[in-house]
Amino acid sequence: MRSRRIWAASSVALLMAFATACGGSSKSPGTNPQPGGAPSSSAAATSAAAISSSIASGAVNVKVNRSVRLNVVDGTFSSVSVEGGGPLAGELSADKLSWQSTGRLQPGVTYRINGVAVDDKGLQKIYTARFRTEKLSLDKQTYPSFFPQPGATVGVGLPAIIKFDVPVKDHRSIQRHLKVTTVPAQAGAFHWISDTEVHWRPAKYWIPGTKVTVRADIDSVPAGNGVFGQKSRSSSFTIGRSMISKVNTKTDQMQVFKNGKLIRTIPITTGRQPEFTTRSGTKVIIEKDRRHDMNSETIGIDPNGPNGYNLKGVEFAMRLTYSGEFIHAAPWSVASQGHANVSHGCTGMSTANAGWLYSNSIVGDVVEYTGTSRMMTLTNGIGDWNLPFSQYKQGSAL
Known about the structure:
By secondary structure, this protein is mainly beta. The chain contains four helices and 27 strands.
């Protein structure tokens, strides 16, 4: 055993000596010889480009009105993309030193940023990041709807109306993203009726045949009180022929003008004065109903009282105010039509005249009333034309 151990040790020594003689170098294992004796480097070259983002990687509950901006120094961008269930629109600057989002963020979405830049040596720098936007419940988002309906043809008195299902407290913010385009062009203005309704009307009645397009580009736009626009939408409608009726409550006559030409004079009756005085001013037909049930309870009168009524299927009813003024057939008051005011505030006429007017009228037609001291108001129906335009445009937020 002893002699075998001595032989093993001697063998190892001989092998080590042999390896040293054949290798031609005494360098330690793991090093590579280089020309001139210089050691090599295993580290790859690093790009000098540095990329930064306006939204930090890993950020959560990011407001949807934030924008994404990437900047690069000591290099230029070769590509940038931001994805979140779909690409986020953006633009690369002409000098390729920055990228700015042009689309808007959506709530409750995880976004992935990918940016590639190169320095002056052509070395690439890759930037990746993720962030998540805040979730928004429906009561924190406001949805725009339009009146008239898309594709409708309406009268010369109907303004473009946008309604919001959640109140807009920051009128200025939202209105910056509302636009009305008319062909032919007509001067006009927005007027906020309330936090849930804004109108746009021209300075004068619409030019017949006008094409109107309304845009509410409010997606993710702040509406105040932590509310944001839910969706961007647009709608278009057409203005028909001009139909303007003029009612004189003193002579009890209605004159109907089509495209400026008198085409019919109709004997009428309006509200008994002073208790049911019909409002003077400019009204607009809001809706049409071939037959309409009318109950005095809706205007605060007991239907079973001496001034009450409960009428079923009143024919050719066209609403003018939210408070209950209509134009309609009133066969029960034909004897008074053209002579006396005996209604509860509505404009009554014979069934034949009412049928003719109904068939020739559309929503948005104008009815101008004179002769009483009780005036039409801005919000009791579509009362936009009862304000001079100089005053009306003061209701704009901009």
